[in-house]
Amino acid sequence: MKNYHGVIFDLDGVICHTDAYHYQAWKQVADELGIYFDESINNRLRGVSRMESFEIILERYDGVMEEADKIRYTSKKNEIYKELLSNMSPSDLSPEVKETLDKLRENGLKLAIGSSSKNACFILERLGLGGYFDAISDGNQIARSKPDPEVFLLAARLIGEEPEHCLVVEDAKAGLMAAKAGGMDAAGIGDASGCELADYHLMTFKELLAACNCEPI
What we know:
The chain is of the alpha/beta class.
């Protein structure tokens, strides 16, 4: 088993769960445009940037949309999403997640966020984790979203570690693909727990401790 120096976490679906908020916000925009949108389409948007997500939704749009209108509608989606996120609080952070993060830190591991979301810092503040992580690499700093490895490579650089010394924790196949493309091991959790790309298949968040050679909680 490898001796990792850093752990890089996706945010949505790993540290917290905001899929329902994304769905509600995109649904409002899709309904306004008369585009069919359901949860299976929403699942295709996980780990994908806001504009790329909108392009997926527009696959069912009857017409051609100007770039300025795309920007307007994605901005509207984000405002709806942020309003929904304002309902989040530290009670939305699982005690198991927080205890596991604390244990990893006690064992000397550097912790980072690697998320395509441009709202990562806002979400972390709502969860009571503002300033908790050693580094945050998010959609505000990258040009290419997952499965491109840019967000994870930046996170590794920000914590001063080589990619091969970092473990990525992801809940989406696109994120696992990004980790492997960046030369990193990956732990799959949630929907990604059974993915063949994962080096570790986590049924619970605290199983991450064993992957990182840490004593259990």
